[in-house]
Amino acid sequence: MSTIFEHMISLSNGVQMPQFGLGTYKMTEPEQTVKVVEKAVSLGYRAIDTASIYGNEKEVGEAIRNSGVAREDLFVTSKVWNDEQGYDETLRAFERSLTALDMNYMDLYLTHWPVSGSYVDTYRAIERLYDEKLIRATGVSNHHESHLKELSAVANIRPMVNQVEIHPLLTQEPLRQFCEEHQIAVTSWSPLARGKLLGEPTLVAIANAHNKTVMQIIIRWHIQHHLIVIPKSSTLARVKENSEVADFYLTDDEMAIIDAMNRDERTGTNPDTY
Asked: Residue 269's domain is classified under what CATH number?
């Protein structure tokens, strides 16, 4: 039986990025972080998403080394934080993150937020890291269409990934369409809307029809929209449950019903007002 771990998204440079991975936001307890990441990799997870601001890059690297899975079979993403941005500052921040992870390269490195006056230079540094083969793909996070257009005007390499908040309450369809037209893969953060939808009657009904949980229904919705999705959980059972979404399909009607839940409602900050 196929698993969700076999699903890949081909980035614009041909690199294959797992469509499903583990987010590590707010995993701040070192021993628990190592345990959760080790468990995820043992289950089959091959993509791990971290960031310098999460304060857990060291533990993520340790768990990967403990996993017994070859480094080249994993996809590791990190991000440069806001007070580390700028050209030279980003290069130094990347070196700190790489040292914390204890790795020779990252698969993907992102600008965490589009800091005004800095994010263009930050992305220029990410381009350099790509040219020097220290990362396998370039990307950004929390970038609106306007930010992407500004980067495109000066970039030699278009961002390959944009990681943004997406869930049924914030579907971001215009931004997703723009990214698709420009060969920018989209990763969903906060894909479960921080639990806001777990008791939503329509989703409960769909979940019951498929003998699945509401969380599994929402993850499947992301997958069928060809989004990369990185749900976070510090609960080992939930890490397993989140991955059990390859054995069913949502119908077109069910997808449309979930799409219609959009209210442009964020659980996090709007990048324009960050």
From this structure: 3.20.20.100
